[in-house]
Design a protein that fits this description.
Layout (H helix, E strand, L loop, with lengths): L8 H6 L3 H4 L5 H12 L4 E4 L7 H6 L4 E5 L2 H8 L8 E4 L11 E6 L10 H14 E12 L10 E8 L3 E10 L4 E10 L2 E10 L3 H10 L2 E7 L13 E8 L2
Parallel strand pairs: 1-2, 1-4, 2-3, 4-5
Antiparallel strand pairs: 5-11, 6-7, 7-8, 8-9, 10-11
Helix pairs in contact: 6-7
């Protein structure tokens, strides 16, 4: 049985080391693409977290706001230079509303899968659309489900390895509900950290339908933030949806 959804649970377990887990992501490339898509902003980031994207976007002159379920993650954001100037609302980003209209709503780094059900993901698309000005964009970054990577519904893989830190992940599928339960194990000189998470995965076409239900149409789909073509072998996607009144 999947535990009741707690939007704050993920941040409680990882906030103090989250930035180290994402330091190899293409942040500069991502920020450059988002700045281009924002067309002057303002920008609303769902799952703003510790500000990996929000702070450099704000440094480029865009007004950035955020919604996040984790006060622990936002506390890390607040401690960074410029973090005190970004308005953040604590709440479930699939339903929480903030005032104003935005040129761009962002949901990056597979965070759409943090929502526990298809219904919650549909509501998230509707919530994003409700925050957009006419012609505004909603950008979703997510991995593409690869069920062939699992044997009898489970998998164990090495994610990264250096002389200082080894990170592995154990995963188990519940295909009937499109759920994946994972625990990342981080081994370092400081000790062992267990980082559990639940994911309600969805295929790109399913996300496209959610967008249409929310009154948006897909404008772009790339396999990465550089704009590489999306194809059969793509293991991730950056999908851009546009809303018109």
């Amino acid at each position: 049985m999947v535990p009741a959804f707690d939007a704050s649970a993920y941040g409680r377990g990882i906030a103090d080391i989250y930035d180290t887990t994402v330091r190899d992501l293409p942040t500069e490339q991502t920020v450059a693409r988002l700045y281009e898509l924002a067309e002057g902003g303002p920008v609303l980031e769902l799952g703003i977290g510790t500000g990996r994207l929000a702070l450099p976007l704000a440094a480029r002159g865009l007004r950035v706001e955020g919604i996040d379920g984790s006060a622990d993650m936002v506390e890390v954001l607040r401690a960074k230079p410029g973090g005190e100037h970004i308005r953040v609302t604590i709440g479930d980003f699939s339903t929480t509303r903030v005032e104003g209209e935005f040129g761009l709503v962002v949901l990056s780094t597979n965070t759409i899968y943090a929502l526990p059900s298809q219904d919650a993901q549909v509501e998230c698309f509707r919530n994003a659309a409700a925050h957009l000005r006419p012609g505004g964009r909603f950008v979703v970054e997510a991995w593409v489900p690869d069920l062939a990577a699992f044997s009898r519904g489970s998998a164990l893989r090495l994610l990264s390895m250096t002389e200082e830190v080894v990170v592995a992940e154990a995963a188990r599928l519940s295909p009937a509900e499109q759920l994946m339960h994972t625990t990342r194990v981080r081994l370092s000189a400081e000790g062992v950290r267990m980082l559990p998470a639940n994911h309600r995965y969805a295929w790109p076409a399913e996300l496209d339908l959610m967008a249409r239900l929310a009154g948006m149409e897909r404008e772009h789909r790339w396999s990465d933030w550089a704009g590489s073509p999306f194809g059969d072998d793509s293991r991730a996607h950056v999908s851009v949806y546009r809303w018109s009144a």
